[in-house]
Amino acid sequence: MTDPNRTAASLADRYPSRIAAEPSVLERQDPVVHGRAEDGPLDAERLAFYENNGYLSFEAFFSAEEIRPYLDELARLRASESERAAPEAVIEPDSGELRSIFAVHKNNAVLRELCTHPRLVAIARQLLGDQVYIHQSRINYKSGFRGREFYWHSDFETWHVEDGLPAMRTLSCSVSLTPNTEHNGPLMVIPRSHRKYVACIGETPENHYRKSLRKQEYGVPDEDSLASLVAEGGIVAPKGPAGSVTFFDCNLMHGSNSNITPLPRSNVFMVFNSVENRPQAPFCGLAPRPAFIAEREDFRPLGD
Length: 304
What we know:
The chain is of the alpha+beta class and 304 residues long. It has helices at 44-53, 64-78, 81-85, 104-107, 109-115, 118-128, 155-161, 209-212, 223-233, and strands at 24-27, 55-58, 89-91, 98-102, 132-142, 150-153, 170-176, 187-189, 196-199, 245-249, 254-256, 265-274. It contains nine helices and twelve strands.
């Protein structure tokens, strides 16, 4: 197991970013799939698809009855003034609408059931080939008419630079609690982009998270690199009814458009990380982001 006392300074930075005057594209140096077909619920065909494309999507993974309590909880949290005022809440920069709530797996008993659901954990463990813990969880509210975009980005670039995750042994899981359609700002991914690491420009400011969670300005890939990735892999929007689930690699380039329809798009995200890949000191040299954004203490494996 990785020595938790080691610092980023003592680790070779295999994925440097935000240190050069020009962006660059580096080859991935970590495996994508760590487990085998016999290690979990995914068959060899699905493992190969994830290996090649960087994501897997399941329509109606949960039934409408199964997700109803979680959708009700999202509505309750959204109506709570105390939740809006909490440090874990992120407000849209223009409309004042609630954008996200972080650490729901720690602070909310109802949503913790979803974040640690055995069917989700089993897939995460198989893909990562290890026991896992939750590095981050959040609700992403994208309200009708006012839900703003999430610009293209690789999560790993931020988790590496600002949180100190050493390797690409991490994945995200998005559970749709409302329908995700082609109209209401669904998640978009660039297949096969997880094979390339886009090193961004711009030095990370202190307490960057306070602005980046509302609108990211650092760790944003350049347009030429994005155009090249799209030319190679295209763009896919994994859509589906409420209860659909998408897993995607930590380095897969993804984003979503603004929602100008009256139809809300609310998803719960959880980030599963290998217990062998726990964060070190941030590679940007600044103080770590708060624990509600990036877990730094509780690495107890899920499902044990």
